[in-house]
Amino acid sequence: MAVESLLFWSGLAAEAALVLLLLRGRVFASLPAFFLYICWSFLSDTLMFSVQSLPPTTYFRFFEVQMVIDSAMIFAVLVELAWSVLRPLRSSLPRGSWIVIAFLVALAGLLLWPLAGLTLPMSVAGATRRLSQEGAIFFRLQQTFAILRLVVFLGMAGFSQLLSIGWRNRELQIATGLGFYSTVSLAVTVLHTHQIVGPQYHWLDEAAAASYLGALGYWVFCFATKEAERRDFTPQMQGFMLLVGGAAKASRIAVTSFEVTKSRHEDHR
Questions:
Q1: What tens digit of pLDDT does each residue of 161-203 get?
Q2: Where are the beta strands (DSSP E) in the chain?
């Protein structure tokens, strides 16, 4: 219990410090979704602590609402990270390109949904830990976004040279923090599905909480230091992105022209 309290209050203090650093650096102007996510995390943690004495059913309703909002915030952060990585070329891309990115992130989440189902707690070694249908959906939603955060981190880290970003750029720093605590969270969940309820079960939960605290501490360190100047894309990457953008624009023009032509034919009939 003492460890739980220490992790909670340390996390709350780290969130508060991070909010102040983000305000000082005016990060809300360049990365508004991430800024709002950290503010929301601080407020939701405070709220969930204040309502923990409520009946279990009421507390779970609060938890459901908190998880839905948290998932929406994470989705916005992932889209923002992908869009921010393309900053050197955004002026050359068609309008509304961020919508395509949002669609791709949502599609990735849908593809990961079946994989997240493999982490659902089942009956293990005689200890039944089955969730209700509603609880299973929310648990699966949580795991889907954990895997999605990890995938985005691996993608950005793996293609960092191609994307011309490094560990001193905000986009990769944010993705690293998300990837770290998502990895620990997923590992804890997988171990839970093969573990009987006991003291070790609770220790793993504390390890997951400690990983989030570690991510917060990493972000505090990163935003307390100066960001490296963003490099331009390599000529190969610029050519590829402009090709993709041009193809998307050409497709949109072709669809519009087809609709106009079809409308004219119908008017002549």
A1: 777 788 889 999 999 999 999 999 888 877 766 655 556 666 7
A2: none
A 10 A CB-CB count for 206 gives 14
Q: Do 25 and 59 meet the contact criterion of CB atoms below 8 Å apart?
A: no
Percent of the chain with pLDDT over 70: 75
Q: Where are the beta strands (DSSP E) in 8-154?
A: none
Give the integer Cα–Cα distance in Å for 265 and 256.
Answer: 14
| Helices marked H in 117-192 | 133-158, 160-163, 170-192
The dotted CATH code for 2-233 is 1.20.1070
* Nearest alpha carbon to residue 119 among 200, 182, 199: 182
Tell me the domain boundaries of the chain: 2-233, 234-269
Q: What is the pLDDT of residue 253?
A: 40
